[in-house]
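Hello Y.,

Per our agreement to keep a running log of every chain we model this quarter, I'm adding this entry. I've kept the format consistent with earlier entries: sequence first, then predicted structure.
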Amino acid sequence: MSSMLQMAAYPSRLLVARLLLLALALLLPLAAGAAYAADAEVRAEFRAAFEAPGGGAASADSEALRAYPLYPWLQARRLRLQLSDANAALDSLIADFFDRHGSAPYTQPLRGAWWRSLAERERWADYMAALGSRPSSDALLCSWLQARMALDRMEGFVDDALVAWRRGRSMPEACNPAFDWLGSEGLLTEDVIVERLRLALDAGELDLARYLTEQLPETGQRSWINARLARAQRGRFLRRLIDSPDAPIPFVDLEAGLRAHARREPNDAAELLAALTEARDFPEDEAAALTRAVALAASWSREPVALELFESLSLEGHEPLHFSWHARAAMWARDWKALERVIAAMPASQAEDARWRYWAARARQLQGAEVEAAGYEALAEDRSYHGFLAAERLGRAPALNHQPLKRDAEVQRQLARLSGVQRAREWHALEEDARASNELEWALGELDDAGKAQAALMLADWGWHRQAITWLARVGEWDDLVLRFPTPYASAFEAAVADTAISETWLRAIVRTESLYDPRAVSGAGARGLAQLMPATARRVASRRGLAVPDRSALFEADTNLALAAHFVEGLQERFEGRWIQTLAAYNAGPLRIPGWLPEGRALEADAWIENIPFNETRGYVQRALYHYLIIHWRATGEPGRILPLLEEPVAPAGICC
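Predicted structure for the entry above:
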C-alpha cells in the first residue's frame, strides 16, 4: 500500500506517529500538556530583552521568560552580541550551544557570525572544524581556502580553489591568496582564464571580464575585447562589425549584444540584423539564432516586424519561449491562421497547457468555427482562468469543484505541541513573519503532503492566511476554495469601499492577488500592506482624494491601506472608462505604462491584449485577479462572477491619474 493510500486509510494514527518521529529527529520536544499559550506580559518581556543593545541581563529573566518558546532565540542573540570581544571561552560556549540545539533556525544567525569571527581571528583549526565541509557562500569559501593553506591541508586543494575561480563574479579579497597560489603553480592556464572570462561575460560582470582579458596573451585578447564591447556598447559596436566583417568575436557575445540592443530598439535591431547577416555570412543555424533573438524582443514590444521575423524561421528550431511569443505576435496581428499553425507545432507538453488549449480553440472560433465545435469542451472542466473563459464561451457555469479539506483533530493537537510550531506562532504574534516562516519550514518541512495540508488548516486558524494558502499550494491541495479564498478584515473592507464606486468583491480580488491577505507584506520594490501600495502612490491618492496622508508604517494598518487602495482603484477605473483589464494592469505595472501597450488605431480582442502584455508578472497578475474575482464573487453571493463581460476592448486613458 502506498504512503498516500495508507494516509487516506489511517490518517490520524500514521500522521501522529510521523509527527512524533519528526519531533525526535529534529530535537523538537513535545510539551507535556496542551499547546503553549503566551500572554502579553511575557511577550513584552521577551521583546524588550531581544531588542536591548546587549540582549538584556540573563540574571533578570523571569521564570515565565525562561519557559517562553522563543527564549532560545534570546540566548543565541546574547552569544552573538558577545562576539565583538570573542575569546576561547566564548567559542566553547557557542560550540556547546550548537551541540544542544542542532540546526534550529535560531542557531543560524549565531552560526554565521561565529564563523566570520573565527576567520577574522584566524582561528583556522576551529574554523575548519566548525564548517565541516566546503561551504557554498563566497565569503566562507574564500576563508575556508585560507584556512586550508594556513594549516597545510592541501589534499584536493586545487579542485576546491578552482571551484572559487570558476564563479563568474568578483570574489572577496580572502580568495586572493588561493588564486595567487594557483598562478604560482602554473595552473591558471589560458583555458582556465578563458573559462572564467566566459562566465563573467555571461553574468554581465564586464569589469571582471576586462581584468581577465588583460591576463591573456596579447594575441588572444582581441576577440574577448570585442566580446566585452558587444555586450557593453550593443548596437553602436555591432555597427562597426558591418564594416569589419573579419573582426574576431565569439558568436555568443555577438548574439547577446544584438539581443540587448533589440530590447531597446527592436526595429533598428532588425535592420542591423539584415546588414550583419549580409556582411558576415553567418552559418544557417547562427543566422536563425540571431533572427529568433530579434523576433523575441520585437514581440515584447508588439512590433509588426516580430511576426515577419518569426514567420521567416522554421518552427522546428523553436524552443517553448519562441513558440509562446510567435503565437502572441500572431494574436497581435490578428492572424488567427498563423496562431493555429504555431500552436499545432508546439511540443505536446506546451500545447496541453490550458493557455494554449484555449487559444487553439479561440483561433478556430475567430476563423469562423461554431463555438461548440471550436474545442472548448474539455477545457471548460478546468478550474483556471482559461478554463473559466472556455466555460463562459460555451454558455456554461464555471467548474469550481469546491471540496472542503477534512480536519484531523488529533493531528492538529500534535502539530500545535511541536516546539518549532510554537516558536513560529509566537514570532507571528510578534509580527516577525520571516522568522516565523523559517521556524515552520524547519519544523514541518519533512512532513508528507497530508501532514502539510493539516498544517495549512492550523495556519488558517491562526489567521495567517498567506502561509495557509502557500502550504496548500505546495502540496497541490487546490479544492478547498473557502480555505484558499478567506474573507478576513470584514469591517475594514466594508468601510474602505463605502464612499467609492468599487465593490468589496473587486477590492478583495486585488488584495488576494497582491498579498494573500498579509497586512505586513513588503515587496522588493517597497510596496506595503494588504493591497501592496507604494508609499508615494498612497500619498498622492490621499492628497487628491482628501484623505489623511499616511506615513510608511500606516500602510501596514488594514483600515488605512484598504481605504487608500479603494480610492486608487476608483481613480484607475475613471481613467480607463471602467475597463477592468486595464485597471488591473495599471494597478500592477503603473498607469503610465498602459498607453504604450495599446494597439494603434485598430481593434484588438481583449483576451489577445491581455496575452500580449509584455511583463510576465503583469500578464499573470491580470489573469489571476480575474480568476480570483470569479471565485470571490461566488464566496460572497453563492454565484460565480463572470469574466467575459469584463473583456472590453482596451481604450486610451483619459484624465489625470489617480
